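> run fold Cellobiose dehydrogenase-like cytochrome domain-containing protein
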Amino acid sequence: MRVTYSLAALAGVTLGRPSPEPRSLAPRAVAYVDSETGFTFAETKAAATLSNNIVYRIAVPANVPANSNYDVVIQVVAPNSLGWVGLAWGGSMIKNPLTVAYPNGQKPTVSSRWATGATYTALTAGNKSNGTHWQYTVKCTGCTTYTGSSGGITRISPTGTTRFGYACASGKVSNPSSTTATIPTHDVYNYVSHDFSAGQNANFAALLLKNGVTDESGSANATQAFE
Ligand code: HEM
Ligand SMILES: *[C@@H]1O[C@H](CO)[C@@H](O)[C@H](O)[C@H]1NC(C)=O
Ligand SMILES: *[C@@H]1O[C@H](CO)[C@@H](O)[C@H](O)[C@H]1NC(C)=O
Ligand SMILES: CC(=O)N[C@H]1CO[C@H](CO)[C@@H](O)[C@@H]1O
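> ok
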């Protein structure tokens, strides 16, 4: 199923009971302070079904100099009904970093799905699962600067609003401990606008250290490319 309804339109559907939360496609800067890792994330919810959201949270360093590369910390919370979720940083499936993840016991697997893609380092906190959701928290190097379809370098603004693509499937990944596992095709894809401004972290490097990230060890690489 492809979700083509706008969330604003869905909010207008009267079901005889109040909607559990306001839904809107308009960009909004919602800050989420994660007590577990200490990062302040800008949070965007993406509809996976009519009643379930994927929560995307992105933390960036404060005061990134113009035209420079920067790492991000991404935290994703997904309902257990989903076998994988993916974020397309450039807003389409091809020629941009795709952050794909699937549940794998207590520690979801995060997988880079673009040939020249990004690398991920797990934080020592913030990845888990319970009876309803699975969650991961990783540092990404290369998610916000990439060579796009035009051949030029695309750099996502660390303070602006950008359009992401996202996708998910209810089908499970059969060997979820592998970063190169074959994933079933998405049954939903759509787009969200993410406003980075609420996720500024003046102490970004110190917080990474606090969460056990000192080097590039644990990086995952792409094997499945969407050229
Ligand atoms: C299992 C491998 C995959 C297959 C076979 C596949 C196939 C497709 C196809 C055929 C379309 C076009 C559908 C249409 O025009 O109605 C599409 C669109 C899309 N896919 Fe995938 N896909 C895969 C993985 C992914 C992943 C990992 C992501 C990560 C976010 C993703 C994100 C998207 C997005 C955002 C679109 C919308 C079109 C665009 O804006 O580029 N796909 N996919
Ligand atoms: C389950 O985990 C998710 C993601 O970490 C969290 O948002 C939710 O509150 C948890 N639910 C319970 C009952 O602990
Ligand atoms: C990831 O890929 C890059 C080149 O695409 C390579 O230089 C690097 O060694 C790879 N890292 C791992 C951990 O495989
Ligand atoms: C391997 C790894 O990073 N595991 C951590 C995932 O996050 C939990 C807390 O949510 C830690 O306890 C694990 O050590």
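DSSP finds two helices and 15 strands in the chain.
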